[in-house]
Amino acid sequence: MTRVLVVDDEPQIVRALEINLKARKYEVDSAFDGSSALRTATDRHPDVVVLDLGLPDMDGVDVIKGLRGWTRVPILVLSARHSSDEKVQALDAGADDYVTKPFGMDELLARLRAAVRRAEPTGGEEEGALVDTSDFTVDMAAKKVHRDGRDVRLTPTEWHLLEVLVHNTGRLVSQKQLLQEVWGPSYGTETNYLRVYMAQLRRKLESDPSHPRHFITEPGMGYRFEP
C-alpha cells in the first residue's frame, strides 16, 4: 500500500484527507507541524508527502529542504499561498507539485497519483540511471550532469526541467506539461519561462546551442530530448 504523510496545522483538512485517502486504500500518517513532519518521515518512510507551507513552528519550504537532504520522496505542496514567487520558491527547494487552497479533492488526489507514478521505478531504472549523449552525461541517481570530465552546475529549476525531458526521452513533452510539472499546476501559458530555461540548458550542455542536437523545439507544441 502507498503510504502518505499529511502535514497541515488545520485539523479539519487533515481529517478530510485522512478519510478520503483511507477510503482509497492509502496508509496515512499525519503531522501538525514541521518538526513532527520531519521526525515522522524519518520513522515511517512515506511514499509521498502532502505538505502545507504555513506551519506553526517553521516554514514549509524549510521542511522541503530538510526532506531533500536525504530523500527524493514526492512532495505535493498544499497551500493558501498564491503568489508566483512563493510557488517558485517551494518548487526550487524541491517540491514536485503545488496545489492552492481552497482545493478540489478530486484534483488533489489525481495530482497525488501522478506524483507517485513519476516516482515509481521502471523495469530498466538502473540501466537508465546514466544517460549518455555525445556532449554530456546525465546521472539521474546522483542528480548530476558531467561534460568534458567536469560537473555542470544546474539550478534546481534547470535540473527539474532536464529531468522531465530525460524521463520522456524521444517523446514530445507539451509546453503546458513542462510548465505544470516544473513550475506548478497554476502555470500553463508562460511559454517565455520555457524559452529562457531551455536557452540556459542549451548554453550549458549543447556543443552548438544555436543548432541543438539534444533539446529539440517542436514549434508551438513543446520540446523533446534526444540523446
From TrEMBL:
Keyword Cytoplasm: yes
Gene Ontology terms describing biological process: positive regulation of DNA-templated transcription
Cellular component GO terms, alphabetical: cytosol; protein-DNA complex
Residues recorded with modification 4-aspartylphosphate: 52
Domain Response regulatory: 3-116
Keywords: Cytoplasm, DNA-binding, Phosphoprotein, Transcription, Transcription regulation, Two-component regulatory system
Residue ranges flagged as DNA-binding region: 128-227
Record Gene3D superfamilies: 3.40.50.2300, 6.10.250.690, Winged helix-like DNA-binding domain superfamily/Winged helix DNA-binding domain (1.10.10.10)
The OmpR/PhoB-type domain, residue ranges: 128-227
CDD domains referenced in this protein's UniProt entry, alphabetically: REC_OmpR_KdpE-like, trans_reg_C
GO MF annotation list: cis-regulatory region sequence-specific DNA binding; identical protein binding; phosphorelay response regulator activity
Keyword Cytoplasm attached: yes
Pfam families: Response_reg, Trans_reg_C
PANTHER family in the cross-refs: KDP OPERON TRANSCRIPTIONAL REGULATORY PROTEIN KDPE, REGULATOR OF RPOS
Function of the protein: Member of the two-component regulatory system KdpD/KdpE involved in the regulation of the kdp operon. Upon phosphorylation by KdpD, functions as a transcription regulator by direct binding to promoter regions of target genes to positively regulate their expression.
Designated name of the protein: Transcriptional regulatory protein KdpE
